[in-house]
Amino acid sequence: MTSSIQIILVPVDSSKGAVQAATYAAGLAEALSVPLRLLFAFPKDPVEAFGIPTEAPRAKELEYYAPEAFARLRDVSAEKVFASAREAIGEISVEIQEEIVSGPAGEAIVEHAEGSPGAMIVMGSRGMGSLREMLLGSVSQRVLHHAPCPVTVVR
């Protein structure tokens, strides 16, 4: 871990917690005069996203299994999420970057942080409830326990 923050990473997904985290991170980025990087985690491939098609899948079930269609779904989804985060953040004086990361959200965020020297992660908490979170885990818990950098969870 480096001793100074050089970039703030903010995983976003249009949830209330992600919007709150983006707003908080924007103020922090301005105070520290560092760039803000919005991260959108998306599955690597259709099987990761939807599972293996059923024995007799309908055409609609297979629609996004075509590589071009899956890439369009990723890009359209990311654009909506990034636009929502930018709207919540408003005008700020630091650079805002956008990046799509591939894979399960927690793993993809940690992997991205590992390759980002001087990173700090600011992320929202969905607040699933302690029992459900304990049984299922959560993205914020995975990131808190595995990230190589400081992590702030906004509630």
From TrEMBL:
CDD domains found in the cross-reference section: USP-like (cd00293)
MF terms in GO: ATP binding
Keywords: ATP-binding, Nucleotide-binding
Signal peptide: none
The UniProt record lists the keyword Nucleotide-binding: yes
Residues covered by the UspA domain: 6-155
Pfam family, one: Usp
SUPFAM superfamilies: Adenine nucleotide alpha hydrolases-like
Family membership: Belongs to the universal stress protein A family.
Protein name stated in the entry: Universal stress protein
Protein source organism: Spiribacter salilacus
Organism lineage: Bacteria, Pseudomonadati, Pseudomonadota, Gammaproteobacteria, Chromatiales
